[in-house]
Write a structure and sequence with these properties.
single chain, alpha/beta, Rossmann fold, 7-stranded mixed beta sheet, two-stranded antiparallel ribbon, 7 helices, 20% strand, globular, DJ-1/PfpI family protein, DJ-1/PfpI, INH-QAR, Class_I_gatase-like
Length: 211
């Protein structure tokens, strides 16, 4: 089964690489990084380069589409990426997103009237594109073949769920063990509801630098 992970300028690295690390552990899944053209794209802060191995027109019918997020999604809401997602979705087993990748799915018309999730800071934006935003970590619409994940690290959870859906629960547990995904964070700070004003002010400071 072919899994196509889309890349574009200013993508969030872990949105793509986190699911990749899970999915590529399963021998029956062939992961390819796709984009508008072959070659390198730089992540959202420009520090890291990721390589597009195949152009969209070279991967017209993947079994799974995965669209990561990042600041770069804002400039990808029309044009080749949503057009490819819309066309590929007609034959996918699952079309998925991580973080603000769901904005691209919405722009492609795939989330109209469906609950979906994204990074907490962009839930209103997602709602403005026709989806019904919710704060769940992973949202599934299996009859519609749509799965969305919340911000960044949630992509790992979604990838494990995809392995269970595509193969079986044993494969998902094996992949989880292989990557030693056993989170025990040192701080209970994974969502704005669990932090105070000081942390939120620092987030705003960091976000202003990256904008």
């Amino acid at each position: 089964m072919q899994v196509a992970i889309a890349l574009f300028p200013r993508v969030t690295a872990l949105d793509a690489v986190g699911p990749y690390e899970v999915l590529q552990r399963v021998p029956s899944l062939d992961v390819v990084f796709v984009g508008e053209r072959r070659g390198e794209v730089r992540t959202e802060n420009g520090f890291l380069g990721l390589t597009v191995d195949a152009a969209f027109d070279e991967v017209p019918a993947p079994d799974v589409v995965l669209v990561p997020g990042g600041i770069g999604t804002r400039s990808q809401l029309d044009g080749p990426l949503p057009e490819w997602v819309r066309a590929a979705h007609t034959g996918t087993r699952f079309t998925t997103s991580v973080c603000t990748g769901s904005l691209v799915l919405a722009a492609a018309g795939l989330l109209d009237g469906l609950t979906a999730t994204t990074h907490w800071a962009l839930l209103d934006t997602l709602g403005g594109l026709g989806a019904e935003p919710v704060t769940q970590r992973v949202v599934e619409h299996l009859p519609e073949r749509i799965v969305t994940a919340a911000g960044v690290s949630a992509g790992i959870d979604m990838a494990l769920r995809l392995v269970a859906l595509l193969v079986d629960d044993v494969a998902a547990r094996a992949a989880q063990t292989l990557v030693e995904y056993d989170p025990a964070p040192p701080f209970d700070a994974g969502h704005p509801s669990r932090v105070g004003a000081e942390v939120m002010a620092r987030i705003a400071e960091y976000a202003a630098v990256r904008a």
